[in-house]
Amino acid sequence: xxxxxxxxxxxxxxxxxxxxxxxxxxxxxxxxxxxxxxxxxxxxxxxxxxxxxxxxxxxxxxxxxxxxxxxxxxxxxxxxxxxxxxxxxxxxxxxxxxxxxxxxxxxxxxxxxxxxxxxxxxxxxxxxxxxxxxxxxxxxxxxxxxxxxxxxxxxxxxxxxxxxxxxxxxxxxxxxxxxxxxxxxxxxxxxxxxxxxxxxxxxxxxxxxxxxxxxxxxxxxxxxxxxxxxxxxxxxxxxxxxxxxxxxxxxxxxxxxxxxxxxxxxxxxxxxxxxxxxxxxxxxxxxxxxxxxxxxxxxxxxxxxxxxxxxxxxxxxxxxxxxxxxxxxxxxxxxxxxxxxxxxx
Length: 345
What we know:
Blueprint: H1 3-10, H2 14-20, H3 29-41, H4 48-55, E1 60-65, H5 71-86, E2 90-95, H6 103-107, E3 116-119, H7 126-134, E4 139-142, E5 152-156, H8 158-171, E6 177-181, H9 186-201, E7 211-213, H10 218-228, E8 237-240, H11 243-257, E9 266-271, E10 284-287, H12 290-302, E11 314-317, E12 320-322
Parallel strand pairs: 1-2, 1-3, 3-4, 4-5, 5-11, 6-7, 6-8, 8-9, 9-10
Antiparallel strand pairs: 10-12
Helix pairs in contact: 1-2, 1-3, 2-3, 5-12, 8-9, 10-11
């Protein structure tokens, strides 16, 4: 069966059949339902590739992931797929090695005329960004900030998030601090900058705060904790720049050193993954506003009416501190915020 057969039996034009399968077309729901029901009875399925040659639209969106082991990215992938499907698009998921450039992988998908590209944990060159712009393909860098790149940025305000983490640890009673960070990059740098700036604003000395890389993994966080917590100057509060590392830190603190959380050590993570809320963890974290960030990303890619669709815009969303059992929310009532003990200055 062809679209001509569907049109004849449904009593509509062939162009109406094509429009009925396009969720963005201006067609009445009654006509659309008639065509879709007729197609179902005739076992007709439109040829999307052939249609894309005519319309120059494939309704495909490429989503580039760099670290599928991090539950933060698997959870956003699930939401991205659903939101794009609701908007009439299908997702093509690509994976690149962590912190590497995605050009080589993305060049393989361009022949499929993708209608947009979302990059979550990889880098692209300026040349590739300009190539996509010449082909009318919008690019969104999600949860990362790459200054100077001709692409949209949709990101959590990481500096503000780091500041909120500092407040949370101080309010939990911590007066000495440590940092477990992921791999080098703008995201981690911004979170650390916000953390230290807020501590300095409250009178703390930040030059000697120990920082150890946890490589964005549970095992890396566990290993980092064995270095930070084993010496005589054990910090009272730890800021982990993602939740996965924070969970590893918590396990090491308990298993290797017998520490109580938060009585002996307060911990705050960043991202807001579901595992952090599980019993036994109760991780306090800076929750990224993922729903708003994904909605903005989908709107940039899917809306032909946005005048800035092919330009470069920066959209930063403020996260929020979720306080759970890994910090002590009432200690600051006994020791005022901003008045650290003199011996730890």
